[in-house]
Design goal:
Blueprint lengths: L4 H10 L20 H13 L3 E5 L6 E6 L7 E5 L18 E3 L2 E3 L7 H17 L5 E6 L8 H10 L6 E4 L8 E4 L1 E10 L3 E2 L9 H19 L3 E2 L3 E2 L1 E9 L5 E2 L2 E10 L5 H14 L5 E10 L2 E2 L5 H12 L7 E3 L4 H7 L4 E3 L14 E3 H15 L4
Parallel strand pairs: 3-6, 3-7, 7-19, 8-18
Antiparallel strand pairs: 1-2, 2-6, 4-5, 5-20, 8-17, 9-15, 9-16, 10-14, 11-12, 13-15
Amino acid sequence: MRENACIRYLREYIAIPSVNPMRRTDQDPAIVGERRYAEHMREQLRRLGLDAELIGDPARPSVVAHATVPDAGETLLIASHLDTVPVDGMEIPPFDPRVADGRVFGRGSCDTKSGMAALVAALERVLAQGTLRRNVIVVGEADEELASSGVNDVIAHLGAHPPDWVIATEPTELRVVTRHKGIVHARLRASGVACHSSEPARGRSAVVALCRTVLALEDLARELGRHLDPALGPGTLSVGQIGGGTATNIVPDDAWLLLDRRCLPGEDETSVRAELEGMLAKHALDDVRVEWCSLEKASLATPEEDPSVLAVQAALRVAALDTTPASVAFGTDAGVFSAHGIPGVVFGPGSIAQAHTAREWVAIDQVEAASAIFERILASRD
């Protein structure tokens, strides 16, 4: 049986490593970075007749391509991130896409090269049929998995000519997602006084101060759990990395931790910094400070009557799929676009339960269904 174009493209994309370096220095340079995938997408989109270019960091670029229609009236941007998470601990060959049991396996198969493959195959069909009814900006953004530098490059590149609305392709199981949490990362640093470990009373341990901070953060996390958003539940807090000290026989004068704060709509890096500083003051943790606090992704809260929601719902309705607006816990670049005044939704094939896993996969029928839905959106002005 002849392979559907969207599955053929997905396998091509998986075979191009595009691992986000994640600020690590221990990953194989041969698989790190988005440039190879971005160049592949630029050339493929140019072959379809789009005006495609690479923008942003030359080493880790994003791709932006335009397809215009006379008198279209509005412009839709569809964004699918180019980067994947690292491949540590994978139980399958990450870049050798395998088809079995109605699934495509490989790193990025679910998150989110399947979204790009579904889109490109749909765009190819509507261009060949002459049925494109919307101006479309196709975006492959770098660095979605960490700091969203790519989507910020895209927004700066578009400048005074932003799209009317956005679809971010992520694994939503073909649901239209209108709400998700935001992501703030923060680094806390503890200071102490170093001395010989044979006389620890002469010093002051930064590690001990940081341990007390972790316990205080657990209290804060429990407090966050008491405040629920009706759709998203509570904000959350998790300590992801911790370090400090220089040797076992030295009382440490420095220690640090990195935390991940999942934010509800209305919360941002300013409110989280104030929250953390209030916690330190409450627990008299005078040796600890908030070194930095960064908004990685803004939350998303698109009204259900927004044109972006209605357009995707109309395509889902034709396909007899669930049109109920959904919420997810994970963050996306749709939140970044929204924070810059560009409304939108999240939609794509696959389940977040398979993303980032040791045997990452996506269901073929979902990729094909997503491509059909993208085709309806591109060929409609509703």
